């Protein structure tokens, strides 16, 4: 396959995945999706599976359940039926059946504490996060309204050493385009506190101060949503961010009086642990909230 064709297919598959994440609360019609991207439906399935290793149906199902697993813990005032609707399920029964198949327990049991052992196993699966002794109990967020941001990005599946290579590609692209003023952002479409780390889509984003001409970039683009966020300023070393995300979702948010939304949280870097020699970071973590 020619490089230009490979890049085109990869960008299209990324655009389709982004559309799914943004519209996961709706009934996603794949025939209409193919028409939207002006592509044959069967070819759309083919390139999506080549890029992501699983078909579109499996991805939609997985993303719906990931969103539901988080909202069940953080949105105390929403019923299980309401959460199933928020995550795109038209049938309450089909949601319960799918949830049990994935998590080996009902949404009700999960909500009442069944998630704890599941989440702890995920944390221990990361050699860096399992060694972290960071504590966040004294951290208090600011509540801020953030603007919409347009970002260039590379999507990376999983949380392991290879994620550094993705950020180095972003850095190479940055240097190649002679961009001096920019913001680096990690976008968390999946919640690593409740999703197997190997399945998490980590999106490495770059927001230049000045928008580039389309012909000057081969990277796909996405929009980071505007909205109200709880902003946490933290610093630490490799592994501490994953432990922080566990704390913010499983301890801070359930006790805060706020609820979260289907918008993804994100991290803005002042110092990047994947690109710094000492592997330390200084970041602001933005958690979407509602009240």
pLDDT < 50 runs, ≥5 residues: none
Q: What is the CATH superfamily of the largest domain? A: Regulatory factor, effector binding domain
Q: What is the second-level CATH architecture of the largest domain?
A: Alpha-Beta Barrel
| Beta-strand content | 15-25%
Total strand segments = 8
Order of helices and strands: HHHHHHHHEEHEEEEHEE
What structural category characterises the helix and strand content?
alpha+beta
The span between the termini is: 50 Å
Total of helices? 10
Shape: globular
Topology:
Layout: H1 3-22, H2 30-36, H3 41-52, H4 56-74, H5 80-86, H6 92-103, H7 107-124, H8 127-131, E1 142-146, E2 149-157, H9 163-176, E3 182-188, E4 201-208, E5 221-224, E6 227-237, H10 240-252, E7 266-271, E8 280-288
Antiparallel strand pairs: 1-6, 2-4, 2-5, 3-4, 3-7, 6-8, 7-8
Overview in brief:
The chain is 44% helix and 20% strand. It is α+β, with helices and mostly antiparallel strands and 291 residues long. It is globular, with a radius of gyration of 19 Å.
Descriptive report:
The protein is α+β, with helices and mostly antiparallel strands and 291 residues long. It folds into 2 domains: 3-124, Arc Repressor Mutant, subunit A (Orthogonal Bundle); 142-288, Regulatory factor, effector binding domain (Multidrug-efflux Transporter 1 Regulator Bmrr, Chain A). It has helices spanning 3-22, 30-36, 41-52, 56-74, 80-86, 92-103, 107-124, 127-131, 163-176, 240-252, and strands at 142-146, 149-157, 182-188, 201-208, 221-224, 227-237, 266-271, 280-288. It has an 8-stranded antiparallel beta sheet with strand order 1-6-8-7-3-4-2-5, with helices on both faces. Helix 4 packs across helix 5.
